[in-house]
Write a structure and sequence with these properties.
It comes from Limnohabitans radicicola. This protein is mostly helical and about 500 residues long. The chain has 16 helices and six strands.
């Protein structure tokens, strides 16, 4: 028995040693396989870059500063002292109202897949922003393949765009509109004009959706109408400025002129506050334009520097124009010139070279000076704070000139001609005439769409809560009659 057990023990020992050796040699391969599987799983869920995410949050705060306090103070200083608080209220409450509506249904209708004109309800009440399956926040595409930001940061950024766009309209009918009428109009216009235009211009499936040439047509067909056409609008020339300016002009016509307009002095009560507001707008606009790159990259830097130089060029041009017309330049003119340059460079900010930015700003200074003087007289409307003269003229000019100075032959970056390979259009393939025509069509669609929606919305408001305060209330001032407060005492 011992003779049998001894060889058996030896054999089992050898077998165990061999098994242990095999296990030790196989372990690295098994570990590598597990590591590869984990890496593949991680690669399937992109991790947003923290720098890009931080830049988007900073940009969102900058745009918030543009509206409250920037735009509020800019507009507030331009009205008479008895209407100062009413303008501050209309800007701040309009902005706040739109933010709430944005997160209820606005973001979903603007930035989810629907049709060429409007999105769907996939993000109603922001559902799906938190991805339960992945245990993290959903991602949003940028303009680079494989680069993402948290969708919640993109939604917040775009919320401020919607808010300030609606607040811009306030300046056209300042000093005479009912507070309740203003808010009801904003709800209607935001829903039926801002959201469709934003979807038509900015919604697309993202660069990674263009995985192969076979799906290009399918993916493009899911984008907004003006995106499909190839319209370039970096930060809102059509969506924000032209859209709001047309709504403001329609309102100026439909609400009517201020009591005493053309006979009584309606000079700004505080150009100091207007200057402070303009300065805040300029600083905040860096978030507005450079943030629209959605990444902290070269295009953000290009938009950043264009926002500096175009604005500066417009200030100089406006002052030169005033000096030629009246013999002296004014503080109001310098502040207005700054806004004109900011407006005009908005659609072009990341789409044109620095030389193009300077030229656009310089032309905008002269063009918008004409807009608030010559064009205003031709139209005959009491656009109280020159919303159309600056934002309409500047927005149209900027949108059209984007088609010119986007050309690589004029120092522009061009555009992505093939999203499958993310290659840019070559100078030989770029047609200035063709791109300007695309830009012109986008401008025309925006003008007509906003005008029609505005007419209907103002009419609905007039038939329900009313558009305008009484003549007695208007003469006393909206601060007291609408809000029971006064901006100044003593």
């Amino acid at each position: 028995m011992k003779k049998i057990m001894k060889p058996l023990a030896v054999g089992l020992g050898l077998l165990g040693t061999a098994a242990l050796a095999w296990a030790q040699s196989a372990a690295p391969d098994a570990t590598a396989a597990v590591a590869d599987a984990a890496a593949t799983a991680a690669a399937a869920v992109p991790v947003p870059n923290k720098g890009d995410t931080t830049w988007m949050m900073v940009s969102t705060l900058l745009v918030l500063m543009m509206a409250v306090p920037g735009l509020a103070l800019f507009y507030g200083g331009l009205v008479r002292s008895k209407n100062m608080l009413s303008v501050l209220m209309q800007v701040m409450v309009t902005f706040s109202l739109i933010l709430v509506l944005w997160f209820i249904y606005g973001y979903s209708l603007a930035f989810t897949e629907g049709n060429a004109y409007i999105g769907g309800f996939d993000r109603l009440f922001m559902k799906g922003i938190w991805d339960n399956a992945a245990g993290t926040f959903a991602n949003a595409a940028t303009f680079s393949k494989g680069v993402y930001i948290p969708e919640i940061s993109f939604a917040a950024f775009q919320a401020t765009f919607a808010g300030i766009t609606c607040a811009l309209i306030v300046g056209a009918f300042a000093e005479r509109a009912k507070f309740s009428g203003v808010l009801l109009f904003m709800v209607l216009w935001f829903t039926f004009s801002y959201l469709p235009i934003a979807h038509m211009v900015w919604f697309w499936m993202g660069p990674d959706a263009y995985a192969s040439k076979e799906v290009v047509d399918e993916m493009t067909a899911k984008a907004g109408l003006l995106w499909q056409w190839g319209a370039l609008d970096f930060a809102g020339g059509t969506v924000v400025h032209i859209n709001a300016a047309v709504a403001g002009l329609v309102g100026a016509f439909m609400i009517g002129k201020r009591v005493g307009y053309g006979r009584e002095s309606m000079a700004p009560h505080s150009l100091t506050l207007t200057m402070v507001g303009a300065a805040l707008l300029w600083v905040g606009w860096f978030g507005f334009n450079a943030g629209s790159a959605l990444e902290a990259n070269g295009f953000a830097a290009l938009a950043f520097i264009n926002t500096m130089v175009a604005t500066a060029a417009a200030v100089i041009a406006w002052c030169m124009g005033e000096a030629l017309m009246r013999g002296k330049a004014s503080m109001l003119g310098a502040a207005s010139g700054a806004v004109a340059g900011l407006v005009a460079i908005t659609p072009a900010a990341g789409n044109v070279g620095i030389g193009g930015g300077v030229i656009i700003g310089f032309i905008a200074g002269f063009a918008c000076l004409w807009g608030v003087n010559g064009l205003k007289k031709l139209l005959g409307a009491d656009d109280s704070l020159d919303v159309f003269g600056v934002h309409g003229v500047g927005g149209i000019l900027g949108a059209l000139l984007t088609g010119v100075f986007n050309s690589p032959s004029l120092g522009g970056p061009g555009f992505v001609a093939d999203w499958v390979t993310a290659t840019m259009v070559t100078p030989a393939d770029f047609s200035i005439g063709a791109q300007v025509w695309v830009q012109a069509k986008a401008v025309l669609v925006t003008v007509v769409w906003s005008a029609v929606v505005s007419v209907v919305a103002y009419k609905i408001v007039d038939l329900t809560v009313g558009l305008r305060v009484s003549e007695e209330d208007e003469r006393e001032g909206l601060d007291i009659t609408s809000h029971g407060e006064s901006a100044y005492h003593g």
